[in-house]
Specification:
Elements: E1 2-14, E2 19-21, E3 26-27, E4 31-48, E5 55-58, E6 61-62, H1 64-81, E7 86-94, H2 104-119, H3 125-135, E8 147-151, E9 160-165, E10 172-176, H4 187-197, H5 201-220, H6 224-243, H7 254-268, E11 273-277, E12 283-287, H8 292-299, E13 308-311, E14 318-319
Parallel strand pairs: 5-7
Antiparallel strand pairs: 1-4, 1-14, 2-3, 4-7, 4-8, 5-6, 8-9, 10-12, 10-13, 11-12
Helix pairs in contact: 1-2, 2-3, 5-6
The structure holds ligand 2P0.
């Protein structure tokens, strides 16, 4: 009744932005991501007849606020097995201190895998990815390593992720930590606001489906420039829809723009470097892994060493 799992964070190259079904976390568009080796969560779940309430510890501290979400998530397993057993959940986030990248993706993927094993439900990866989805949308993709596609589907069972490439070639990311403060507005809320008020939202959905087709062709060819161009523009389109929401949502900070300018200069020098940004000011640079240290050297002129993290592609969720 006890198991521990490790799941890695992922960064979307084609973004998920907006839900078609809030309750089931079914998105309006399919998305595609790279699983990262450097950032992960380890979570242990122990079901026990000896306790009457769930308990949750994050980074060795009791966390009664997050507990509510964790309990609701464990109910998915309890309901399926028709049991009432409570659990002790201990989770450690392996992200650089105050990285501002503490990811619900790796968190819910690790929780899903540990609960799956500990409860004895033993779902396969595809079903596990539908469970993770109900914790947090992006967690759907963190069940797998390499390059992962979350196929939007149109029901609980058909909205899941699959690995489309093991990415065991020259590809990686440089993550630049611009600001480690709490998000100004959560992605869940920001998505809703965008869907409801942005006049550009329908174009976002339409365009991202086309971007997905194009990037999959570029991935087949291992064409890093094409992959980068498509993903960079897809991120900008997502942020453009947010900027047009009412009230507007803006995650850019001055140093985010500075990283973007450095990336553009690197490209002028012939290096294949492309930026992407999510619901926060940190910037992730897609590149050849073999170019990552050159890119880091350049960033060191403007940023602190501890704020620049080079990472290769990460593996699928594992029981440890
Ligand atoms: C993504 N993001 O594809 C997009 C791009 C942020 C920007 O998924 O509401 O924490 O729990 O489903 O997954 C972050 O949102 O949101 C996210 P919920 P989630 O990675």
């Amino acid at each position: 009744m006890k198991a521990k799992a490790r799941a890695h964070a992922n960064i979307a190259l084609i973004k998920y932005w907006g839900k078609e079904d809030e309750e089931l976390s079914i998105p309006n568009n399919s998305s595609l991501s790279l699983t990262l080796e450097a950032f992960y969560t380890e979570t242990e779940v122990e079901f026990s007849e000896l306790i009457s309430e769930d308990e949750f510890y994050l980074d060795n501290r009791k966390d009664d606020i997050t507990l509510l979400k964790v309990s609701k998530f464990l109910d998915l397993f309890r309901d399926r097995l028709n049991i009432k057993t409570r659990a002790i959940v201990k989770s450690i986030n392996y992200v650089p201190t105050a990285a501002g990248l503490a990811s619900s993706a790796s968190a819910f993927a690790a929780l899903a895998a540990a609960a799956n094993k500990a409860s004895g439900l033993n779902l396969n990866d595809k079903a596990l990815s539908t469970f993770a989805r109900k914790g947090s949308g992006s967690a759907t993709r963190s069940i797998y390593g390499g390059i992962v596609e979350w196929q939007k589907g149109d029901s609980d069972q058909t909205s899941y992720a699959i690995e489309i490439d093991d990415a065991n070639w020259d590809i990686g990311m440089v993550v630049v930590l611009v600001n480690s403060n709490e998000k100004k507005i959560s992605s869940t809320k920001a998505m809703k606001q965008t869907v409801l008020t942005s006049p550009y939202y329908p174009s976002w959905v339409k365009d991202s489906e086309k971007d997905l087709i194009d990037i999959k062709a570029a991935i087949k060819d291992r064409d890093i420039r094409k992959i980068g161009e498509i993903s960079e523009r897809n991120a900008l389109k997502m942020h453009a829809t947010m900027l047009a929401a009412k009230p507007p949502i803006m995650y850019f900070e001055p140093n985010s723009i500075l990283v973007i300018q450095i990336v553009q200069q690197l490209r002028e020098k012939g290096i294949a470097a492309y930026f992407t940004m999510d619901a926060g000011p940190n910037v992730k640079i897609l590149c050849k892994l073999s170019d990552a240290n050159t890119i880091k050297e350049d960033l060191l002129k403007s940023f602190d060493k501890k704020d620049i993290i080079v990472t290769k592609v990460g593996p699928k969720v594992q029981i440890i």
